[in-house]
Amino acid sequence: MPGYSPEQFDPNFIRLANRPFAMEVFLRLQPKLSFPRVYQQVLKDLQDAFVARTAIVNEGFAACPNRTCPEGTAAFENWSTPSRDDKILQMIRLATNFIVTPLSEAESGALRDIWNAEQKKVYVSFDGRDYTFKQLNYIWAAGLYSSDPNDAPDLRWALNPDAFSARLQARLRAR
């Protein structure tokens, strides 16, 4: 039968306990795959996504002065970032899940080392201050960011404590 491989049904097909089937197939197709190198690329793509968001947030705020881009307008759709923000969140989840994927002890250790080093790495700068992956990871995991182009950049990033506090107070008053 074309496309059928009895090997995939072999009880010993998965060589490392608890390794996902799809990962085992991938390793069979690319046996010299370096998971640390793949992981570094995932994290680089994540940083690139944050950098790209920086420009869009700044341009969006300039395009929507004094909250002139109400929801539902073309300007709001052009400058809001919900899809981009969700993609960043999915990339963070991928990066987080990657480090708990069953790999060899050496590969798992290398991924943990990369993850720990990445926490301290500056991903974006805003108002003359640097923000690390650890800070942005927390902001995204907690859903503290804003996708609304009418919000000032410090609110969009939830990086300015005073601005963030004002946003929370406004949300509470609106309830």
Care to describe what's here?
The protein is mostly helical and 175 residues long. The protein has one domain (36-174). 59% of the residues lie in helices and 5% in strands. Strands 1-2 form a two-stranded antiparallel ribbon. A hairpin with a 2-residue loop joins strand 1 and strand 2. The N and C termini lie far apart (62 Å). The model has no long low-confidence stretch (mean pLDDT 88).
* Radius of gyration over C-alpha positions, nearest whole angstrom: 21 Å
Mean pLDDT over the residues: 88
Beta-strand residue percentage:
5-15%
How many distinct beta strands?
2
The spatial strand order of the largest sheet comes to: 1-2
Helix content: 55-70%
Poorly predicted runs:
none
Q: Span between N and C termini? A: 62 Å
Number of helices: 8
> What is the chain-wise order of helices and strands?
HHHHHEEHHH
What summary fits the major beta sheet?
2 strands, antiparallel
Q: So what's the overall shape?
A: elongated
Structural class: mainly alpha
Number of domains: 1
Protein topology:
Blueprint: H1 21-29, H2 35-63, H3 74-79, H4 82-98, H5 105-119, E1 122-126, E2 129-132, H6 133-141, H7 153-157, H8 161-174
Antiparallel strand pairs: 1-2
Can you give me a brief rundown of this structure?
A two-stranded antiparallel ribbon has the order 1-2.
